Amino acid sequence: MTPATRLPPIGENRVAMSDARARQGGRFVDRTEAGRGLAACLEEYRATTTVVAALPRGGVPVAFEIATALGLPLDVIVVRKLGAPWQPELAVGAVGEHGVRVLNSALALATGIGDEELARIERREAAEVERRAALFRSGRAGVRLAGHTVIVVDDGVATGATTRAACQVARASGAARIVLAVPVAPAESLPELAGSVDELVCLMAPAGFNAVGEWYENFTQTTDAEVIDLLGRAAASRRGSGGPDAT
């Protein structure tokens, strides 16, 4: 297991940092502890124009701790994979807010998805992106990503498909630099994940990985209400401190 690994885009370990807190059985207590551990590894971004963007729902409690500790704006990055009709987990692309779309054209061609079918899938998933984003923000505008370093956060990586889609959408939204911060990911996935971002920060990279939840003592499902609450608290804290959001 590699503790607190940081990787540049193409591979070699650049920095190895140890997490001082001992965990029972090598696991996190909960998403709050995981977020605080990541915040300690991201100290260099304190009080900068960096934006913290969480994958809902489980990534939001983790990201909330990072944004709170470092004085950064917090938002959600809502993405939906464009899955093949007969195999939804096979993502040929992804959509984000405001019409942002990334597409693996070669894979779409290889799967035989026609233009009309792809357009139908895209319309459906784009509508769901906008619905979920509006729900989570409760009427607040989203934080602008263009021109900023964006720390994309989730509570862990399993297959990595949604995580990579979120990073691609952030890039397509104009982010100047992408940092992927996750508490745990399979050791074998690190090179591929690192290849899709400018920096990868991962606290634990175990071999023999089965599911994200097995690396937490408490991995209860995060609810929509919790996401809404945490985003509201983060926005109120920024207003109260006079800290400008990245716009």
Task: Give a written overview of the molecule.
This protein is an alpha/beta fold. It has two domains: 178 residues, Rossmann fold; 55 residues, Ybab, Chain: A (2-Layer Sandwich). Strands 2-1-10-9-8-3-4 form a seven-stranded mixed beta sheet, with helices on both faces. Helix 1 crosses helix 2 and helix 2 packs parallel to helix 7. The chain is globular. The chain starts with a strand and ends in a 6-residue tail after the last helix. About 7% of the residues have low confidence.
Notable characteristics:
247 residues; Rossmann fold; 2 domains; 7-stranded mixed sheet; 3-stranded antiparallel sheet
List the helices and strands and how they pair.
Layout: E1 2-7, E2 15-16, H1 31-41, E3 51-54, H2 59-70, E4 74-76, E5 80-84, E6 87-95, E7 101-103, H3 105-111, H4 115-137, E8 149-153, H5 161-172, E9 177-184, H6 190-194, E10 199-205, H7 224-241
Parallel strand pairs: 3-4, 3-8, 8-9, 9-10
Antiparallel strand pairs: 1-2, 1-10, 5-6, 6-7
Helix pairs in contact: 1-2, 2-7
Q: List the secondary-structure elements in sequence, H or E.
A: EEHEHEEEEHHEHEHEH
Biggest sheet character: 7 strands, mixed
The portion of residues assigned to helices is 25-40%
User: Can you count the beta strands?
Assistant: 10
Could you say what the CATH topology of the largest domain is called? Answer: Rossmann fold
Q: How many structural domains can be distinguished in the coordinates?
A: 2
Number of helices: 7
Q: What is the mean predicted local confidence, pLDDT?
A: 86
Q: Could you say which structural class the secondary elements and strand pairing correspond to?
A: alpha/beta
